[in-house]
Specification:
By secondary structure, the protein is mainly alpha-helical. It has six domains: 197 residues, Rossmann fold, CATH 3.40.50; 64 residues, no CATH class; 58 residues, no CATH class; 59 residues, no CATH class; 197 residues, Serine Threonine Protein Phosphatase 5, Tetratricopeptide repeat, CATH 1.25.40.10; 60 residues, Arc Repressor Mutant, subunit A. The protein contains 46 helices and eight strands. The strands form two sheets. The protein has a five-stranded parallel sheet with strand order 2-3-4-1-5, with helices on both faces. Helix 21 packs antiparallel against helix 22. The longest helix is centred in the N-terminal third of the chain and has 28 residues. It is globular, with a radius of gyration of 33 Å. Keywords: DNA-binding, Repeat, Transcription, Transcription regulation. InterPro entries: NPHP3-like_N, P-loop_NTPase, Sig_transdc_resp-reg_C-effctor, TPR-like_helical_dom_sf, TPR_MalT, Tscrpt_reg_LuxR_C, WH-like_DNA-bd_sf, WHD_MalT. One of its GO terms (molecular function) is DNA binding. It comes from Oleispira antarctica.
């Protein structure tokens, strides 16, 4: 009897102790994750969670900040609801672990956690769970039915967070989660978080209430990273770019990097400790949880970075790579599918960096050699060149590089070519005329003109002309363009096009692009469009998608120069769609240009948020492929900050750009004038007129330096509007000095010669300011109206006053910004407006194609009408506009903003 009583008391005591342990464990795992010291709030992602579907699943590998993002959002949501008088939100947080991977324990965890947050609501469900346990049978569905019935009767919204769901792969435990998902009450949100999907979801994937937030949304963008670094006292854009390229926005990696920077002073020590910490994190959180065979496979393929089943089989001399690849994909081990290349995958660069050294140096070189041989046979040139560089393959790669010169140029992967040339060394390069030409073109297209001049000086010209007809002309023409000698460049590029063989399509496209930009700078968009059409035709004829995308970038610039902002944006979108079909490395060069330019157009149209996203994204991609168009991105950041009255940030963006150009050894004439012009406008906004004048004098010296050598005034390939921006800035300085007549003379060429675009718009407004200052209100109003009409037509919505002197706009009338009054006033003053309104829709279509430079026959083909009908429309257009020729009709149509 005593023994029985003792055993009974002991069982009761153990039961009480177990309950205490369970309660403590539940309390510990019901706390949202603590925010790290370096946490960066991300309002856009928090909003994404707030407005997401009823079942939202955060899915990403370790270290992507799932738990801390959820914690921040969860706490803020509950706190915000407490501050409101109605509908307080109740929350339940479950941090799961391996113990939860059995149904009974998971249910008990869930019920205890809910009971802690909402006392009494789980009484029936918990009683049924304990009763079924005592009777040694499981009835999870009945327990959940009782629980969810109680929860749906609560008169308030509920949030249930289940963090670390990847621990739940037992079928019965998963049924608990699945039942909650399928029977979720309407007043409840279920937020899940895991590194991978632990079981097959089946029909759950069709549930309209379910949506995923994956690693591409959770990783830091360059904009996020830049903001995060500045918050921590690191104001270095190049550091941000370097980290972005290496870590690809992986939050844990950034946190580890920062912790080393804060605790260590020596750069060498930082590098070593950082590598050790990153390796330790990945080993502890990812690799040590893998089976040994899968871990070995991952280490062996790490030097490849990009791979498919066939390549892995060949490298490792096995035939079951697909089994291991499927496991890596299932466990989401920092692996991504390659878009538009089915069956191909890529590993995160940091994983490659950590795992590759676990192979011997000899083994790595063997892997790179085998990969190079495989990839060159498959015509994956960029990837083959990548492995040739990493494996320090010179003799093995020389003949292939020589034979693929035109295709390599067409791939636009010049930074990789330069890197391989550096490894190959001068001795090997100088033995081969083809390799010398490859290196020269790579230097040209990365704007390193001094290096080109040195190489060209050592070339055997007679041999080049004999074996590579047209190439020397093309090189000299491209170089002349880069140095601002447009007349010589136009002549040489034209001759090169005639001499270059058909199969030199890459260089022929570059010649057309050069001629397009020459005509654009010289304000002849019709001629520019003709060369651009040929550029597109050659690229399409040879199915060179990268070159076609580059040609569309040129087309977008032509349309923007014409003042067709909306059409320019349409062309950009067309190019971006086309770029998606390219391999990831080949996308970078043309895509970076288009994305940055789209940012420019979006900014003009008042969409600053998306413009900034584009600009930061474009800067990141341009940095990866060493495209000097990154300078346009930084300039736009500077201008946006200037317009927002953030002059320190504007100057900082220009300083970052200048440092990057110097690091890339870009010729000074490419970037210094443009940076100085933008900087002059910043100084003027700060009323530092002396500094502004110094900047503009510096520009004048650089722009005119070539004129002294008989080459004409220097112009910019990167910035066709550079000359007009310089004139506009000079006019602004002259207005400040009250030199109104000189300012007016500086603006007249912009208004008379420019076809449209933001420079002409600015010139109209600046002219209006001059007329206000000289007490000519009628002329002031007219100039202002012309600008406003253009801005209205193309939906330009930025406040351009940051580029204008201060003035009294009351002289422009009571409502100088009223588009309706401007249109009415313009119609009264210009009877041609009434005539223009009589143009039919078909006549306007024909007129637009005439303006695009189409012949009558081409217009007929485009519109599916007869040649006779086109001629009839053209005669009517000329008659209605009072024009005697196609050219006059185009000019008058633009004046009336018909096209």
């Amino acid at each position: 009897m005593k023994t029985s009583s003792f055993n009974s008391d002991q069982d009761a005591w153990l039961s009480t102790l177990d309950q205490k342990i369970l309660s403590s464990w539940v309390a510990l795992n019901s706390q949202p994750a603590a925010l790290p010291e370096h946490y960066l709030a991300r309002p856009a992602l928090s909003q994404r969670l707030t407005h997401a579907k009823a079942i939202t699943w955060l899915l990403a590998p370790a270290g992507y900040g799932k738990s801390v993002l959820l914690s921040d959002w969860y706490v803020q949501t509950l706190e915000h609801s407490q501050s409101l008088e109605h509908e307080q939100v109740l929350g339940i947080w479950l941090s799961l672990d391996a113990k939860d991977n059995q149904a009974e324990f998971l249910l008990r965890h869930l019920l205890e956690a809910i009971n802690n947050s909402i006392p009494g609501v789980v009484t029936d469900a918990l009683a049924h769970l304990l009763a079924s346990k005592n009777q040694q049978y499981e009835d999870s569905e009945a327990v959940l039915l009782l629980l969810l019935d109680e929860l749906k009767d609560l008169n308030c919204p509920l949030i249930l967070v289940m963090d670390n769901l990847h621990y739940i792969n037992d079928p019965k435990a998963w049924q608990v989660v699945q039942y909650i998902m399928t029977q979720l009450p309407s007043n409840m949100r279920l937020i899940l978080s895991s590194r991978y999907i632990p079981v097959a979801l089946g029909r759950l994937r069709l549930d309209p209430k379910l949506e995923f937030i994956k690693q591409n949304e959770l990783c830091f963008s360059l904009k996020d990273l830049d903001r995060w670094l500045k918050k921590r006292g690191f104001d270095d854009q190049q550091q941000a770019l370097s980290l972005m390229q290496r870590l690809q926005g992986w939050p844990a990696g950034l946190g580890l990097w920062l912790s080393r920077r804060n605790n260590t002073s020596s750069d060498v020590e930082i590098s070593g400790q950082e590598q050790e910490q990153l390796s330790d994190y990945l080993m502890g959180e990812v690799l040590n949880n893998l089976e040994e065979s899968l871990k070995t496979f991952l280490i062996n393929i790490a030097p490849l970075q990009c791979f498919n089943e066939s390549l892995c089989n060949q490298i490792l001399q096995i035939n079951d790579s697909s089994h291991y690849i499927q496991q890596l994909v299932h466990f989401n081990i920092f692996i991504n599918n390659l878009e538009h290349r089915p069956g191909w995958f890529s590993l995160h660069p940091l994983l490659v960096e950590v795992l590759s050294p676990l192979n011997s140096e000899e083994q790595c070189k063997k892997i790179h050699l085998l990969a190079f041989q495989y990839l060159k046979e498959k015509d994956f040139r960029s990837e083959a060149l990548h492995h040739a560089r990493l494996g320090e393959l010179t003799k093995d790669a020389v003949k292939w590089v020589e034979s693929e010169i035109d295709s390599i140029i067409a791939d636009l992967n010049f930074s990789a070519v330069l890197a391989w040339c550096d490894i190959a060394g001068a001795e090997i390069i100088e033995r081969s005329l083809r390799l010398q030409l490859v290196q020269i073109w790579s230097l040209l297209l990365t704007y390193q003109y001094q290096g080109v001049i040195e190489f060209v000086g050592r070339l055997n010209s007679s041999q080049v002309e004999l074996h590579f007809p047209g190439q020397l002309l093309a090189i000299k023409g491209y170089l002349a363009r880069g140095q601002g000698n447009d007349a010589q460049a136009r002549s040489l590029c034209g001759l090169a096009l005639k001499e270059l063989p058909e199969n030199r399509f890459g260089i022929r496209v570059l010649m057309c692009s050069t001629l397009t930009n020459i005509e654009l700078v010289n304000k002849d968009p019709e001629a520019a469009r003709i060369w651009n059409r040929l550029e597109l035709e050659i690229a399409r004829q040879h199915q060179a998608t990268g070159l076609e995308v580059l040609a569309l970038f040129d087309y977008a610039r032509v349309e923007q120069f014409r003042g067709h902002i909306n059409r320019s944006l349409e062309v950009i979108e067309q190019g971006l769609v086309l770029a998606r079909s390219l391999p990831s490395q080949n996308q970078l060069f043309p895509r970076a240009r288009l994305v940055i330019y789209r940012g420019f157009i979006r900014w003009l149209q008042g969409d600053k948020a998306n413009a900034l996203e584009d600009i930061y994204s474009g800067i990141d991609e341009a940095n990866q492929c060493r495209d000097v168009t990154v300078l346009l991105g930084y300039s736009l950041l500077a201008l946006i900050n200037l317009f927002d009255k953030k002059t320190d940030e504007a100057l900082d963006a220009l300083a970052q750009a200048e440092r990057l150009m110097q690091r890339w050894r870009v010729s000074e004439g490419v970037y210094q004038p443009w940076i100085a012009i933008v900087k002059a406008n910043i100084w003027m906004s700060l009323e530092k007129w002396g500094r502004a004048e110094q900047s503009l004098k510096f520009v004048a010296q650089m722009l005119m330096s070539n004129e002294q050598n008989g080459m004409g005034q220097s112009s910019s390939e990167l910035f066709p509007m550079q000359t007009d921006f310089y004139r506009l800035s000079n006019a602004r300085l002259m207005v400040q000095k009250q030199q109104y007549s000189q300012a007016q003379k500086a603006l007249e060429p912009i208004i008379e010669e420019a076809q449209g675009g933001v420079m002409r718009l600015s010139a109209y407004f600046m002219m209006s300011v001059i007329h206000v200052a000289t007490r000519k209100p009628a002329k002031a109003k007219k100039s202002w109206q012309q600008g406003m009409l253009f801005a209205s037509k193309e939906k330009i919505q930025i406040d351009i006053s940051s580029l204008l002197p201060k003035f009294n706009n009351s002289l422009l009338g009571e409502q100088p910004f009223s588009i309706d009054s401007i249109k009415a006033d313009d119609k009264a003053q210009n009877p041609l407006v009434n005539v223009a309104s009589s143009l039919s829709a078909r006549e306007k279509e024909v007129l637009a194609l005439i303006a695009d430079g189409f012949s009558n026959q081409e217009i007929a083909d485009q519109l599916f009408i007869s040649l006779h009908t086109v001629k009839t429309h053209a005669r009517k257009i000329n008659a209605k506009l009072g024009a005697k020729s196609r050219t006059q009709a185009i000019v008058k149509a633009r004046e009336l903003t018909i096209i």
